[in-house]
């Protein structure tokens, strides 16, 4: 190391001669003052009641405490590049150097996607040269959670348990661990790692955009950050706020607005509670059906291999998905899972594709109800950034809240809303962000390399960011762009009037006018309530076919 330093010195000496001298600014070394929080501000818990007062927490089933210090085969040192601190996952069967965390669809921990993936090789999330960011809007998903109620892993556990009660079965070899395995997962709640993800996102946002808090100067106004009433959603917003404002400061510096999520009530963060077609098999959930069909043939050789290591019980293709999900869920909740190394790299690629199909056709361009479900949030975006109250109620947003400036302020420099992954994707579809879907409808029978990867767009902690900025050298000076998990998205292909820009920028006013047209184009009532049949395998641009 010293030798290397010495070797560099002559070069440094040569480089040191000054080519340019700067004069010190008159402000150098002085202390500048921030304006936030304005003295005397207080959270108003009468206007913004907490979780218990709001109710509707959904299922809150706790699981068994993790014990990774005893169950994990290796320790999660923080400098291990191939791990997801503090989680540990084995390499796939027969594999090495495979980043298994990136093949779990919506159960993957979020990771940075390079802008080059969508064709903007030079774009960075940092403020483009010559611009300054004046306003942001963040839509983010909760961190890692337990399975939702009634998901596959618990049925798999019940199958093993039932078979053990009335008969005997045994397993050996790679499946030896199953003889003593128990089901330890709860349901719906955030896991410790999930809390970390939301807290860390809050810390990151504060570090990058803290200066925007200086816009909150009035003593009667604190930022309003929204979420839904489910327990994990409330905890998500609280962990984000704790990361952003600090503990206990977050209790005093932000109004967390908890919007009820329950069937029949309008809530842009949970539009499927209102949009009934989203739960109809031939409309809103064609993706789930396609994914299940794909899984029937996708794991054959592993199915045979695992079935050859049990007697008295036999596994089905569906059990392969359950066991892959146990790999993801146990790792996300307990820190390690013995299920992961039962599967091969090809299995994980098919597992990711299973989710790609499910999400592309349930909530992406292949869905007939995705744009309609994202329309409420789209209308809120336009309302907030143009400071124009919503007057036309034609989507799943909440009239009472959205027409009241206490609950839906139109002049914040920072907006941050927590939601579910399906809503993030519905929203991206409503925004017509076609670069996410540029390779077209996903083939339903055979895995291919499509531009849409669920683990990049809907993972735990996923976030969709709008940056609005002033760029004095550009015309017009007010510009903006969209980012998903650090990737800057090109919008020139689906936004008329936006031309290619290496930083993904487009005129703010032009984007607003495109999005206003998009609002007109999306027919919430038809897509959500009409009697039509959608065909799997089609790029619908997220809107229903007119075949009623
Ligand atoms: C075991 O078999 C008995 C008799 O057939 C049945 O009543 C019971 O429900 C079974 N138990 C389980 C756990 O399947
Ligand atoms: C937004 O406008 C309201 C009403 O004029 C005002 O009370 C509030 O302080 C403003 N908030 C911010 C963040 O500027
Ligand atoms: C809006 O949300 C509030 C509280 O979350 C709820 O009481 C109300 O019924 C909702 N309104 C509509 C129109 O859905
Ligand atoms: C996988 O197995 C199923 C029967 O379980 C069979 O119908 C199918 O052809 C097999 N697929 C492949 C690709 O081998
Ligand atoms: C929800 O919004 C829709 C569309 O604006 C409206 O038709 C419906 O009455 C609202 N539901 C409730 C419960 O307010
Ligand atoms: C907005 O909500 C607050 C608190 O519930 C209420 O006092 C106020 O009257 C509402 N404003 C309007 C315009 O409805
Ligand atoms: C926040 O304040 C800065 C500095 O005064 C200003 O340039 C920017 O436009 C403000 N942002 C909003 C959304 O008002
Ligand atoms: C898959 O497609 C993406 C972009 O659509 C591309 O960046 C990547 O290199 C492709 N991978 C393979 C293995 O072809
Ligand atoms: C949305 O994208 C589709 C397909 O890329 C395009 O046909 C349509 O014109 C776009 N909508 C708007 C309002 O730009
Ligand atoms: C929807 O349309 C189909 C085919 O036209 C028809 O069979 C069915 O009865 C209709 N369902 C409803 C609820 O109207």
Quick structural overview:
Keywords: Hydrolase, Signal. This protein has 548 residues and is α+β, with helices and mostly antiparallel strands. The protein has helices spanning 2-15, 51-54, 68-71, 152-166, 192-209, 231-245, 250-253, 286-298, 300-307, 317-334, 345-363, 370-386, 399-402, 421-430, 454-457, 508-521, 524-529; strands spanning 132-141, 170-171, 224-228, 255-259, 310-311, 414-419, 463-470, 478-484, 487-488, 506-507.
What do these coordinates show?
The chain is α+β, with helices and mostly antiparallel strands and 548 residues long. It has a single domain, classed as Rossmann fold, CATH 3.40.50.1240. Helix content is 34%, strand content 9%. The chain contains 17 helices and ten strands. The strands form three sheets. Strands 1, 6, 7, 8, 9 and 10 form a six-stranded mixed β-sheet that branches. Strand 7 (463-470) and strand 8 form a beta hairpin. Residues 259-260, 265-266, 398-401 line the site of one 2-acetamido-2-deoxy-beta-D-glucopyranose. InterPro entries: Acid_Pase_AS, His_Pase_clade-2, His_PPase_superfam.
Round the Cα radius of gyration to an integer and report it.
25 Å
**Secondary-structure element series:** HHHEHEHEHHEHHEHHHHEHHEEEEHH
Given the structure, what is the number of helices?
17
Tell me the number of strands: 10
In the CATH hierarchy, the architecture is 3-Layer(aba) Sandwich
Mean pLDDT: 94
The CATH H-level superfamily is Phosphoglycerate mutase-like
| Class by alpha and beta content | alpha+beta
Small molecules bound in the structure, each named once: 2-acetamido-2-deoxy-beta-D-glucopyranose
Residue windows where pLDDT falls under 50 for at least 5 positions: 1-16
**Gross morphology:** globular
Number of domains: 1
Task: Report how far apart the termini are.
Answer: 73 Å
The CATH topology is: Rossmann fold
The CATH class: Alpha Beta
Q: Report the biggest beta sheet as strand number plus sense, adding barrel if it closes.
A: 6 strands, mixed
Percent of residues in β-strands = 5-15%
Residues in helix, % = 25-40%
